[in-house]
Amino acid sequence: MNLLEISWPVFRLGEHKPTIENNLVYYSKEYVDKESLETRIGLRIVDDKSMQGSTLGLRRLIITGARLFPIRQAIYFLGDLIKIAKQTTWFIDNTGKVFQYRKSSRAKLTAYKIKKVLPLEGMGAIIEVQGLPQRFKCMYAPKPEQFYAGILRWGLSYVLYGFYDEQFKATYRLV
After folding, report:
1. Alpha helices, DSSP H only, in 30-164?
2. Of the four listed, 3, 47, 135, 172, which is most buried by Cβ atoms within 10 Å?
């Protein structure tokens, strides 16, 4: 899947690909019922695109009579997706597209001194770093002991990768 086709936020599903049939995205698991000793199949619904609703969240709100697959982790930024993606990890975007993010190139990771932290109302912060004209949005402010921001240079773009206690030598990451 092309990064331009992703509708954010993205949600981590796990290490196994869900089954996709007739606009239904689900996980199934076979188990033995302890009382009757019968083999049963447990279904957990991730998404049902046949329901009304333009987003995954809206459709999940109106699904009734079925167990929902728990979605525990939302990813709002590309840097976070890059960090947690493995070859076996499956994701679903806000519109219900199931995909894997495959790292295929390298990007230089450089530590920049944090110049200013602008807190946002509610949640998050805007980060300014020395040496770059652009600002970076994040879901949380750096801890007081974190004076450096790790910034990936990927093509012509800069991506916030994380916060660090000390400056490190420039290195490369697979993205």
Report:
1. 56-62, 78-84
2. 47
